Structure formats: structure tokens, C-alpha cells
Amino acid sequence: MLQEIANLGGWLRMMGRHDRSESLFYYFRIEDQVPENHLLRLIDRYVSFDFVREKLRASYSETGRPSIDPEVLLRILLLGYLYGITSERKLLEELRMHLAWRWFTGLGFDQEIPHHSTFSKNRHGRFQESNLFQELFERIVEQCLAAGLVEGEQMSVDGSFIMANASHHSRIPREQFKEVARVNYGARKYLEELEQENGDGEPMHEQDKVSTTDPDSTYLTKGNRAAELGYFDNYLIDNESCVIVGVQATAARLSQESAAARDMINRYCERHGRQPKGVAADTTYGNGEMLQWLDERGIAGYIRVKENPKGQPTDLYGIDQFTYVPEENCYLCPAGKRLNYVGINKGNRVHRYYSTTKRCRGCEQKPQCTRGQFRTIGIHICEEARQRAHARAKTPEFAMALRKRRKVEALFSELKNLIGLRRLRLRRIKFVREQFYLAAVAQNLKRLVRFLSQPTRSLMEITA
């Protein structure tokens, strides 16, 4: 018995027991606790945020109580997008406990964490007025270009629907909006801001119903999904590096995607003095106007042509069976009968050519030509660009471009699943832009510092 007790005592001593008593003082440097290959250390090493103070210098008074460093606020905001924390209260709670985050923001344990209301005040004021977030995004893109990460020859464009921070129950008939604004502070403030901006106190987007919570958001249904309020986040990316080189927030309207693509490409060309050789996109962008716009700039559009779903049935004669007579601006059908030009259909922007009931009535080929009383032909005003796109779709380069285009879909998956931007936190399109820009900055930063920290690259720089 005594031997067993002795053995038990030995086991207890060998096993050990942790004493949770806390020391009164600790001495260590936060700097020593952050690994050399940590993401935040790499960002701090390769990316400078010094421009923030210079850009916002005019927004601060030279007298009075010192304010919080705007660079610190920006770094804290970036942490939320880098680590998928969508709540600023939650972000500040994590910052209070996270050593690497404190090191990245420069806030020691003896320094006070900013109050969450500070972010709202700066976002609605200095940051918004100075376009700080767009400037930050453009600077990161320029650094990607300077480092050789972005080739810029082949690009892809796409848009993704992001839910607004508003319920569909908040929608009211458009004509009632002004009346509701008398008792609804958000709606009244929206109309006041619109009147100051453009002198028009009407909601921005033409809709039958407008949300009183977020009037800029639009109601969209696509495929089998239920209709929801939201916005489109549009990306223009470099195919090789997967770096986002263009971001634009638009209303959730399919027609806005092509307009956003043109704006992003134009802005990229103007700012960086170069343009892509090819742009890939899905069929949503395959309208004649977009294809012709790309052709005029010498950009190959790797886009399938968007056809009219109510067009001519495929079992009847196609346009290739008809012969165009340029001298008379008419078409001849396979039976040699004329289809005369009657003008442009402004709805779908096509030139219309019509036969007559008399010409088609006794034609033996009528069953193969039309199911109506007479045959009509619609030629899009951008038909040449459409035909070039049809021909390009048969090339190996087209198939390769479509495979590369999937990278933009992966970026949107990262945006929603890792960054957590399935649903917007802020309202109004001017604040939605902020979220889209910061999310794109976070995505680009990860790729940039990973590229710059490659061992082979470091060796090349040393030996250069």
C-alpha cells in the first residue's frame, strides 16, 4: 500500500500541473511576437500608407485637440477586410486582444483603442470627401504594375450581386416617397442630399418602388433566385496575376454591367497609359454596342454574342441564306424575292427589312422561310462587330480566354466567403463604393506581398 502511494506521488510530480497565477508585470516587445512571414508584417514591409496624412492634411485644423492618426484608422479598417470581420465593434474587440493587429496599427497596450463612432465620423467626412479609398486602390494597382505582377494584356470583366442592407418590406411606391420623407429621417436626408448634389429631389434609379432604408439600392431577380435589394460589384482583373485593376459599384441592373466595363477599361487606360489586347466576359456583355466599342479600340472581345431570345426559329432560313444588295439597300430571299428596308427599330436597335404578304403567299419555300404571312429580317446596327465576335468564338484563343475568365468568379467567391461581403453593412451607393474598394484592396494586397516575398525574387533583387 505504501509503495502504491509513493508511485502515485511520483506520477503527479512527473505529470506536472500548470499554475494559472498571473504575474503583476510582463516585459516583452510586440515586435518580437509577430513572425517574419506574417501577412501583416509583409504588408507593412512592402506597402506604404504615408500618403494618407498628406492627402488629408487640409481636412484637419492646426489648432485644438489632436485627433486620431488617419493612417491608424485606415489600417484598422483594412484589418476588417483582410480577416473577414464585417462589424466595427467586433473589429475593435479583436484589436484589443490581438498582438499582431496592435503591432500593425502601432497601438501599444498603453494606448487607447479608438471608439467605433470615430469610423463613421471620418467615413462620412474626410475619407469620403477626399476619395481616399479609391486613391488607395489605385496606388496598390500601380505598385502591382511597377513590380511586374500585372501583365495587363489579357483581362476579364464580370459583376456580382451583393445584397443591400435593406429589407424588401421597406419598398414603397415611388410617388409616395416624398410624402413618407416628411416622417422618415433617412428618406428626408436622402432627398436633401440629392437636391444639394444635382438639384433634383427624386430617387436616383427609375423604379416603380423605392426602399426608404436604402433608396439607391435596386430590386433584382435573376434565374430562379428570389428578388432582392442590392448592388452590382464590378471587377476588371488581369488574367495572369488575378489582380483586380478596376472596381465599380452600380445599380443592380444587367444593363449597367456593360457600362461599368467600359468605364473601368477607360479609367485603366487613362491612368496607366496602356490598354489590354483582349477582354473576356460572359454572354451578358455580348451585346452589339459593347462588341463594337471593343473593336473600335483594337481590343479583342472574347465574348459570346448575345442573341435575341425571341429571334427567328433555328429550323427556318437564317440570315446567311439571304443576299444583300448594297446598291438598293435590300435583301433577296432564297427564292429571289425582295425584302425592302423600312427603318430602324429603336427598341432593339436593328435595321428592319420586310417582304410583303403578296410576295410570300405563293412561294414554295415559305414553310422553310417563315411561319408568318411574310418574312422579316433584323440586322443589328453593330452587325459587323457581332459577326467578328462569332468568328472569334471558334478560335483556340477564345476557349483559353474563357478558362481564364473563371478567375474573376473565384475572386467574387473570396469576396463573399472569406471577406464576408455577402450582404452590405453600409447604405447609399457612395458608401457601398467604400466597401467595394477596401475589399478589392485587401484582395490585391495578399497577392502583391506574396509576389514580392518570393525567395527567388528576393535573390534576384539582391544580385541585381
Provide an overview of this structure.
The chain contains 18 helices and 13 strands. It has helices spanning 2-15, 39-46, 51-56, 70-82, 88-97, 99-105, 117-129, 132-146, 177-180, 185-198, 254-272, 288-296, 357-361, 366-369, 383-392, 396-417, 429-452, 455-463, and strands at 154-163, 171-173, 209-211, 218-220, 228-238, 244-251, 278-280, 300-302, 323-325, 330-332, 338-345, 350-354, 376-380. The protein is elongated, with a radius of gyration of 30 Å. α4 (70-82) packs across α17 (429-452), α8 packs parallel to α17 and α12 packs across α15. Strands 1, 4, 5, 6, 7 and 8 form a 6-stranded mixed β-sheet that branches. Residues 458-464 have low confidence and may be disordered. The protein folds into 4 domains: 30-130, no CATH class; 138-165 and 230-304 and 393-458, 2-Layer Sandwich (Nucleotidyltransferase, domain 5); 167-216, no CATH class; 319-381, no CATH class. The protein is of the alpha+beta class and 464 residues long. The N and C termini lie far apart (76 Å).
